[in-house]
Write a structure and sequence with these properties.
The chain has helices spanning 31-50, 94-112, 126-139; strands spanning 3-9, 15-20, 60-66, 70-76, 82-88, 152-154, 165-167. It has 172 residues and is α+β, with helices and mostly antiparallel strands. Belongs to the TRAPP small subunits family. Sedlin subfamily.
Length: 172
């Protein structure tokens, strides 16, 4: 599976991190925002239905829903931070996705443990970016697709710390 987007959402459903790794040329990167919002609703439903079961300690929510082009997976931490993985339709084992989420969770915990990080604020650490990129490179089945979408760049040519894409020809 190729990772298309990773989104980290705080306890109050505030975006902490969203990065698009690949997208179809004709597809706006903003589409991943909509997919992530839809995934949040499904995560809340799954968490509510798990509260009364013995499996409520499991943080991996598995496949949330598929679309025509993507498969969306979810993970929730003990602090109610949600991690959403949007990948292409390539088949992948649940154990591989679970392992990916565990590694990403470790990277997230390490980053949030930084004494200079303000709790519940957007993650803008270059070290976090590098570690996430390395994890995605190792996980994705096709390394050649690990580019930012052409025709789009983020503010300051970085990941979506501001949560907004701008066309490359936009004047700021």
């Amino acid at each position: 599976m190729n990772v298309c987007c990773i989104c980290v959402v705080g306890k109050s459903n505030n975006p902490l991190y969203l990065r698009v790794f690949q997208t179809l040329e004709e597809e706006p990167a903003l589409k991943f925002h909509y997919i992530a919002h839809t995934a949040l609703d499904i995560i809340e439903e799954k968490v509510a239905s798990r509260k009364n079961t013995t499996n409520s300690a499991d943080t991996n929510l598995g496949l949330l829903f598929p679309t025509e082009v993507y498969k969306i997976y979810g993970f929730i931490t003990s602090s109610k931070t949600k991690i959403i993985l949007i990948g292409d339709e390539t088949e992948v084992k649940d154990s591989e996705v679970k392992n990916f989420f565990q590694k990403l969770h470790k990277i997230l915990v390490d980053s949030l443990s930084n004494p200079f990080y303000e709790y519940n604020q957007q993650i803008e650490s270059p070290h976090f970016e590098q570690q996430v990129q390395g994890l995605v490179d190792n996980f994705s089945s096709n390394k050649s697709l690990q580019k930012k979408p052409s025709g789009f760049k983020t503010r300051n040519n970085q990941s979506m710390g501001s949560m907004a894409f701008l066309p490359t020809n936009a004047n700021i």
